[in-house]
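Sample 3 of the quickstart, ligand zinc ion:
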Amino acid sequence: MIEITPKDVLVVVDMQYDFLPGGSLAVSGGDEIVPLINTLAKRFTNVVFTQDWHPADHISFASQHPGKNPFETVDLPYGTQVLWPDHCMWNTRGAELSADLDIPHGQLIIRKGYVRTIDSYSGFQEADRETLTGLAGYLNERDVDRLYVVGLATDFCVGWTAIDGAAGGFDVTVIEDATRAIDNAGSLAKAWADMAEAGVERVMSKDILG
Ligand code: VGL
Ligand code: ZN
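Result:
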């Protein structure tokens, strides 16, 4: 059994309506993990959230690239970008965190992807691999050294947040059954391989809850 301490943080990634069933970029089964995340959160003193937060003309939207469809790619200055349906736009319901989350002691919501020209899957840094969100500074000031990552989607925002957390010197564990994936074109298998290579650990919720 894993013991959770005040040096640990639960990072709840992108539990927003657009990623839940009925949303514009719905992740299959995304709603199923809400009760489990609520149960896990009760074990943690420290909980933070990430929130995908895009302007309506964000560069990651297929709608901004004439002739392109969602899930196709374009080459941008920082690399290859997957194009998405419009999602998580400022001040829309789709961008709101699910009201079914019951985590009143959650401490911080870190928004990402708000620069029009840069996407950000990671809660730590944007896709240009330069622009930092401030999350590492926050966690270091709070004397946190281990991250447990849950939420949506395993193969994008969860995976990138985990990998960047490990690169930033944190011990990082993903709680697999408290995530769900998009799994487009092999992205889930690739994400698990990339996480393993980065030293990210992979556990199930029973390892924490018993
Ligand atoms: C995400 C695609 C685009 C995610 C965010 O939360 O995994 N995926 N924006
Ligand atoms: Zn996004």
